[in-house]
Amino acid sequence: MQMHGGREQRVDLTNCAVEPIHIPGRIQPHGALLVLSPRDLAVRHVSRNVGALLGRGPEELLESPLLRVLRPAEGVDIESVLRSPDPAALNPLKVGAARAGATAWFDAIAHRAGEQLIVEVEPVASSGGVSFSDVYRAVHAAIERIQGAAGLAEACEATAEEVKRLTGYDRVMIYRFDREWNGEVIAEAREADIEPYLGLRYPASDIPPQARELYTRNWLRIIPDVAYQPADIVPEPSRPIDLSFSVLRSVSPMHIQYLKNMGVGASMSVSLLRDGVLWGLIACHHRTARPLSYEIRQACELCGRFLSLQLVAKEKLEDRDRVQELRSLTAQIVATVSRHEDLVTGLTESAADLMKLADASGGAVCHGDVARPLGLAPAPEELRGLHTWLRRNVADQPVFHADSLSKLDPAFARIKDVASGILCISIPEPDPWYVVWLRPEVIQTVRWSGNPEKPVESSAEGAVLGPRRSFALWKQTVELTAVAFRPAEVEAAEELRRALIDLDLSRQVVRERNARAAAEESNAELEQFGYIVAHDLKEPLRGIKSLAGFVIEDDRAALSAESQGNLQRISDLSASTMGLINSLYEYSRLGKVDFSFGQVDLNQVLADVTLRLSGSLRARGAEVHVPRPLPTVFCDRVRIGEVLANLITNGVKYNTSDAPWVEVGFDETSIPMVFYVRDNGVGIPEGERHRLFKMFERLSYAEHHGEGTGSGLAITQRIVGRHKGKIWAESHSSGGTIFYFTLAEAPLTDP
Questions:
Q1: For the chain, how long is the longest CA-to-CA vector?
Q2: Which secondary-structure segment (H or E) carries 554?
Q3: 664 vs 625: CA distance, rounded Å
Q4: Is the N or the C terminus of the chain less surrounded, counting Cβ atoms within 10 Å?
Q5: Cβ-based neighbours of 211, under 8 Å, separated by 6 or more
Q6: Could you give the CA distance from residue 598 to residue 631 in angstroms, rounded to a whole number?
């Protein structure tokens, strides 16, 4: 039975994985626990065993101020420490308690748990204790040795040996988790007369998820005596007390039984974290009970923290030669690819180097709907299936790797001979494409400590921690699995991915630059052509129109009605063509002439425009509204006048209202400032708005509203573009249009 907040709960294998081990409601009895009120430091809860350590039972201590219970050593201001934001930073505090006419000395270990303040006291060894200098020398030697290790394996071996030397435990192991949270002993220091565990694996069920989460938060846990009888916390709290960071926290009975089955009398574990994620443990076992002082425990924790900081560096150091080889291969692959316009072609030519990069026997380059095999790859149909699976399950994930494809999808078991393991990188495009490395199945023998597939045994008492009763070597044959890709190979694939993306982006920049230069050259030639054509055609057309007019005027009486009509049509067509040519001339000229920029008062520009358009405005009964004075901006006065004139003219021309109006305004809160010309005209059909600014495009409604060349808005857009601005429109087919435009070179000044 296990106490959780005062309630008894049976702990068995059905609820082991959800057992709330951080709130056991009990402690280990090698120390005593006091829960204080942070406000007045009065004792609210104590462990039931407090009398055996402090000489006064719970009934005497409850509601007493802490300083009546414990006397600090000389120079220790325990009250200031306990009222500080982080009392744990100054642990341990030396305190005394009167017991049998003498003072017994303790290490007081304090920390905050939510709104509660927890103080735990452990007896200070009366003899044989270690001094600070002893601990410092031992820790210094351990850190020097770990730091000087040539690789991860050597660093782990050094850590195990140094922690064994510090603690005197019979066995110290470095235990590493895999991706599925199974553990493997990768280093061990032990007494010569106990069986080795080095190389053995332990199933993930040995350390359930909530225990791993607690290991991530709290660096060190210790059980000085596996045979302890837990002490309850009294009185029963209304809410369970969180003992996550308690050094005395009682341990799950499941774990105690596990240790007893192993023949362990005392244990300690120190977490190993890599980038904040639980990587492994320093696991320490002793055959008999063995307490450790706070100083020794802190020394072991420091070794664990230091090894944690060294994990990444030692892994890279261990793979130093391989890393150099992979960098050279990456550079070689990129050099080969760069000689080809197409990345896929270059990668296909680099197949041999690609395979060496990940020590793979086969692979593929999957682009679009095509999967090109490399080396020993699956058959085309199977490769297409793998490509489809990658699209669905990997998508644009930068790097993906697995050592057993069939665990991800049983259908892949049929390609195990060439593709049991996979490493792939995605190259981002509208649809990502993949470079894939494949490894074949390698049948392996895994050495487990006990049968991992048999977590329970039955007895007369029900389910018990059975095969863990026996930790004898148990061998398992593992199929459908490839040799796992090493971290250095995964990093090399990531580096290749970055290099390919950089190469592709640089090529895109060059292509865009070349295309832009070609377009600019083509536009310049086109503008020159348009300028020449417009200039050279204007005079002949003007002559045709004039001659047609002369014939009609001089010989009207001699001409038939049909001939007169034909001549009039010639005159009209000449005039219309001249209008188009004038627009073409103006449009092409905009790309050649220099604009005259300066500070321009738009109110004066608008006044000139409305004066120029006054005749047509009066004829339509139209008004131009200006809600507030326009600003002074940096622009070409004449060209911006053309923009306003064009937009106002369109607003009046394409308008069937009895009272047409156009409004000119601006929004200075936008950067750059946005100007607008709004009207209550006919609106623009949604299906035609994309044609607004195209040269010589006339919209469907224009036929009903007079002549026009369809070039006005194209010219307007070009003028705005020469100001490094933009123009766009919003409209409703039911009526009304707003043209917006910006002038990027037009900072707001005082109006």
A1: 148
A2: helix 487-555
A3: 6
A4: N
A5: 21, 252, 255
A6: 13
Residue 697 has pLDDT above 80, yes or no: no
In angstroms, rounded to a whole number, what is the distance separating the alpha carbons of residues 608 and 650? 17
Give the burial string for 668-689 (b: 16+ CB within 10 Å, else e).
Answer: eeeebbbbbbbbbbbbbeeebb
Peptide bond into 432 cis (omega under 30): no
Of the pLDDT bands very low, low, confident and very high (cuts 50, 70, 90), residue 468 is very low
In this structure, what token pair is assigned to residue 723? Answer: 């100001």
Q: Which residue has the higher pLDDT, 682 or 477?
A: 682
Nearest to 237 by CA among 49, 398, 6: 6
Query: Do 398 and 497 contact (CB within 8 A), yes or no?
Result: yes
Q: What percent of the chain has pLDDT over 70?
A: 79
Buried b (16+ CB within 10 A) or exposed e, 332-363: ebbebbeeeeebbebbbebbebbbbbbebbbb
Contact 684, 697 (CB under 8 A): no
Distance, CA of 74 to chain centre = 52
Nearest C-alpha neighbor of 34 from the set 244, 243, 292: 243
Beta-carbon neighbour count of residue 280 at 10 Å? 27
pLDDT digits (tens, 9 = 90+) for 572-602: 666 655 555 554 455 555 555 677 888 999 9
- Taking each helix axis from N to C end, the angle separating 712-722 and 637-653, rounded to the nearest 10 degrees, works out to 150
pTM beyond 0.85, yes or no = no
Say what the alpha-carbon torsion angle 189, 123, 248, 245 is, to the nearest 10 degrees: -90
Tokens of 39: 């406000």
Torsional sign, CA 553, 557, 559, 564: positive
Predicted confidence at residue 659, as pLDDT, reads 92
**CA 632 to chain CA mean position, Å:** 46
Pairing outcome for strands 623-625 and 661-667: parallel
- Domains of the chain (ranges, CATH numbers): 23-123 (3.30.450.20), 132-231+246-318 (3.30.450.40), 510-590 (1.10.287), 597-742 (3.30.565.10)
SS3 150: coil
Nearest Cα to 468, choosing from 666, 660, 260, 294? 260
Residue 251: CB partners within 8 Å, gap ≥ 6? 21, 24, 28, 221, 223
- In one-letter notation, the amino acid at residue 410 is P
**Dihedral sign (CA 88, 91, 96, 97):** positive
Q: Is pLDDT at 354 greater than 80 in this prediction?
A: yes
CB 397 within 8 A of CB 413: no
The H or E element spanning position 424 is: strand 421-427
Report pLDDT digits (tens) over 498-548.
988 888 888 777 777 776 666 565 555 555 555 555 555 556 766 676 677
Buried b (16+ CB within 10 A) or exposed e, 113-138: eeebbbbbbbbbeeeeeeeeeebeeb
Q: Which two tokens stand for residue 176?
A: 């590493």
Residue 747's nearest CA partner among 596, 597, 610 is: 597
Helix (H, G, I), strand (E, B) or coil at 45: strand
What pLDDT is attached to residue 411? Answer: 92
SS (H, E, C) 260-288: HHHCCCEEEEEEEEECCEEEEEEEEEECC
Question: In which element (H, E) is residue 746 found?
Answer: none
Q: Where are the alpha helices (DSSP H) in 319-463?
A: 320-338, 343-349, 351-357, 380-393, 405-408
* 245: nearest Cα among 84, 87, 123, 111: 111
For 563, residues 6+ apart whose C-beta sits below 8 A from its C-beta are: none
Side chain identity at residue 361, one-letter code: S
Among 268, 311, 294, smallest CA distance to 164 is for 268
